């Protein structure tokens, strides 16, 4: 398409000039102003705004000036005279080559000004971060001062207690001395009168010592003094241990690899902090692998801290709103809990639930059920599902809550053959929680399923077309005589003792799946 305004830059639509908007021609033949070229350069690359050709460049000065365009512009300026404004004649005192050199220097200065502005902006952001840190230090200082005050109060109580102990010790020593003297007096009595007088003194002394003994029992130890001292010591010791661990005063300085990185990127590299929108599934994978190898450094430590603090969530958004699932770390293993309508923690880092679940390997899917009764969680049951079977996929859906329903807070319902071979327990009514619900989540659950008569086998209730086949059965005792159950789609790999303990509870309906989810094979 013909350019009807050749004197204008086709990006910013400003007229070319002999300063920042000087016309320069790219290797692909298209011309733009120096300022737009500088703005378009990113990471040493320039994409032509017209034809999208790629050019290696770090500054506009690497491209030649379009002198023909400048001549055309001067000619146009000579023709289009603005009334009342004299035409500025080109400089006659220097040659065209020197004039071009001057313009090059002006362009270099303009580029440096832009760089200065960028660094000044980074310095402003860095200063804001320094201000935040100073505020945090002041807050920590206040808390440390509060610990010092608590420590002084505890020491004052100890001093008072020590004074009381000293006083009572003195009284006890005096009583003991008097008793010893009484023993000597009884050995030297010669008359009845001396006996009666000495016995009276002994009785008085005995009474005083007995009173002293009772007073010691009542006064010591002072509960408030001992409790306060122990608690303050524990609190301060934990704070000091954390400070010693976290400060890294003896650690080697961090190596800042890329000198071209921005100031704040370098700060994040030193501190290990991760911007909220930069956490990835790959970070979790590296973190878990490092935990398994007991290797911790840099970003891995930061990710681990976030997970351990409960600040990493998998989120799902649909027409009904937003739901989130916790990601936790235990014994070097990552767990994804079910999606719930729950507020995310402050400063939470979020990942799309579809990305997280997408890493599940169908050939080795592990799920977990946390069983609890009498108000507390009693243990975790981990189940390995049979690869690529509809009932296994349905179980994953109900452990993650991807389709809205979940096994979380469902009760175990019934024990069959209790205490006998083939004993099993039933649960998983996500609908009515009384054994009458548990409709299938998937339209077709037909598939090739195993048979097993061993304890730990997990199977469906009824056939794959049954109206309650989302309910599950866990076998807790082996069948005898070679018998086998059908429709087995998983096996308990750990926690079978927890299921057996639940079976032996007085009322099986008091046992609840307090939590559930999947093990992330990252």
Strand residue percentage = 15-25%
Distance between the termini: 53 Å
Mean pLDDT: 84
Helix content: 40-55%
- The overall strand count is 17
What is the helix tally? 11
Verbal overview:
There is one protein chain. This protein is an alpha+beta fold. It contains 11 helices and 17 strands. The protein has helices at 34-40, 67-79, 96-188, 192-219, 223-247, 263-271, 281-293, 298-308, 353-357, 390-400, 496-503, and strands at 23-25, 31-33, 45-47, 54-56, 312-318, 321-330, 333-336, 349-352, 366-373, 376-385, 412-416, 424-427, 450-452, 457-460, 472-475, 485-494, 512-520. The strands form 3 sheets. Strands 5, 6, 7, 8, 9, 10, 11, 12, 13, 14, 15, 16 and 17 form a 13-stranded mixed β-sheet that branches. It has a two-stranded antiparallel ribbon with strand order 1-2. A hairpin with a 2-residue loop joins strand 6 (321-330) and strand 7 (333-336). Helix 3 packs antiparallel against helix 5. The protein is flat and about 150 Å long.
């Amino acid at each position: 398409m013909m350019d009807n305004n050749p004197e204008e830059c086709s990006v910013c639509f400003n007229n070319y000039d002999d300063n920042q908007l000087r016309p320069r021609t790219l290797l692909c033949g298209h011309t733009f102003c120096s300022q737009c070229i500088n703005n378009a350069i990113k990471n040493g690359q320039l994409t032509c705004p017209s034809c999208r050709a790629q050019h290696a460049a770090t500054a506009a000065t690497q491209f030649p000036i379009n002198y023909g365009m400048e001549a055309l512009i001067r000619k146009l300026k000579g023709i289009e005279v603005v009334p009342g404004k004299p035409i500025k004649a080109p400089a006659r005192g220097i040659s065209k080559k020197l004039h071009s050199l001057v313009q090059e220097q002006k362009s270099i200065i303009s580029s440096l000004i832009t760089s200065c502005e960028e660094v000044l902006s980074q310095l402003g952001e860095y200063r804001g971060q320094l201000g935040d840190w100073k505020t945090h230090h002041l807050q920590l200082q206040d808390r440390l001062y509060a610990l010092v005050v608590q420590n002084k109060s505890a020491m004052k109580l100890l001093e008072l207690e020590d004074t009381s102990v000293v006083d009572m010790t003195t009284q006890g020593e005096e009583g003991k001395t008097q008793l010893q003297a009484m023993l000597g007096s009884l050995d030297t009595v010669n008359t009845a009168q001396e006996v009666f007088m000495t016995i009276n003194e002994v009785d008085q002394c005995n009474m005083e010592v007995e009173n002293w003994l009772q007073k010691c029992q009542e006064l010591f130890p002072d509960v408030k003094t001992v409790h306060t001292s122990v608690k303050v010591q524990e609190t301060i010791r934990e704070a000091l241990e954390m400070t010693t661990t976290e400060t890294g005063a003896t650690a080697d300085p961090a190596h800042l690899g890329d000198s071209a990185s921005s100031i704040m990127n370098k700060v994040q590299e030193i501190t290990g902090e991760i911007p909220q929108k930069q956490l990835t599934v790959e970070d979790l994978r590296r973190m878990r692998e490092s935990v398994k190898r007991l290797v911790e450094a840099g970003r891995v430590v930061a990710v681990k801290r976030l997970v351990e603090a409960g600040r990493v969530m998998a989120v799902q958004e649909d027409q009904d709103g937003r739901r989130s699932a916790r990601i936790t770390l235990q014994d070097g293993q990552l767990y994804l809990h079910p999606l719930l309508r729950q507020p995310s923690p402050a400063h939470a880092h979020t990942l799309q639930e579809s990305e997280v679940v997408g890493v599940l390997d169908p050939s080795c899917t592990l799920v977990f059920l946390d069983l609890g009764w009498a108000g507390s969680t009693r243990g975790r049951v981990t189940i390995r599902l049979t690869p690529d079977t509809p009932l296994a996929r349905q179980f994953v859906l109900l452990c993650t809550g991807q389709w809205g329903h979940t096994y979380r807070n469902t009760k175990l319902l019934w024990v069959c053959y209790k205490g006998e071979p083939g004993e099993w327990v039933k649960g998983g009514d996500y609908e009515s929680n009384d054994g009458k619900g548990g409709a299938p989540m998937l339209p077709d659950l037909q598939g090739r399923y195993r048979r097993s008569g061993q304890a730990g086998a997990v199977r469906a209730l009824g056939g794959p077309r049954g109206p309650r086949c989302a309910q599950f059965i866990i076998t807790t005792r082996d069948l005898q005589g070679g018998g086998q159950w059908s429709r087995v789609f998983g096996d308990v790999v750990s926690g079978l003792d927890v299921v057996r303990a639940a079976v032996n509870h007085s009322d099986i309906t008091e046992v609840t799946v307090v939590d559930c989810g999947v093990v992330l094979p990252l």
